[in-house]
Model the fold of this input.
Amino acid sequence: MTAVGTAGFLVAAEEYLRDHHPEMWSDAATRAHFNGSMFTGYDSDAAMARIASMNMLLHGVENPTIERADSLSEGHPGDDRYTLVLANPPFAGSLDQETVSKDLQKLVKTRKTELLFLVLMIRMLRNGGRAAVIVPEGVLFGSSNAHKAVRKMLVDDHKLDAVIKLPSGTFKPYTGVSTAILLFTKTSSGGTDNVWFYDVRADGMTLDDKRTPIEANDLPDVLARWQALDAEASRARTDQSFVVPREEIVDNNYDLSLNRYKEIEIEEVEHRSPTEVLDELDALEVEIQDGLKRLREMLA
Done:
């Protein structure tokens, strides 16, 4: 994981494995892998790397690989190395061009951290490796050459699996920026066929700074539909989720924003005729005049 922060994503992955794959503890080699090289994280902040290591230790991972490293610099972690990348990298930031790895600059000429991290994750994955990355919504439709180049890379050179739009406020109180999750598989040979889109409207918590729990929560439905993707092809564009063929995305300049493809169902409202409305106004006018007449008689 790049920009590991406090290792929240790694802890969640570790807890998922414990809950859903208890059989892994019966194998000594798998246990050793779990407690050693299974989890890797990098952060440029030494204090943050220490916090991440402690967090993993407190959650039962004995020897996680958490290192202080500037992932975007010349000494970035090795290419073609990992089978799974989970990341919520910093966004809305810019770097000096001189500090960015020349290898990354060959792929995309930009100073924007959110684009550089996406390209880095592609480089770090082995072929067949998968990634789930949170990005600011601007990555999906930005008009700069760099934005288009990164989206084109995901769609044409690899396999973009899904775009999951998150509600604004998901990451409050830290940021109110609208975000999305990109799910993709590194292939180095294309493979994007249909891209699955889902519009998350509620995530189980209020979307204000307090983020208190509520009943409305689309996340279980996201998982259920993701696990039954074959059934998604028949969904209408007016639904909460739907698929878009690669050709349509290419025709739309590789725009990956959900609203570009979603269709809004407009209900037909039956309006009364103007004559009917005027007749009703006439009746009301007569009623008002009658009331005023009675009021004057009472006051006389």
User: Anything to note?
Assistant: The first strand starts at residue 40 and ends at 43. The two ends are 87 Å apart (CA to CA). The chain has a mean pLDDT of 91. Residues 160 and 184 are 4 Å apart (CA to CA).
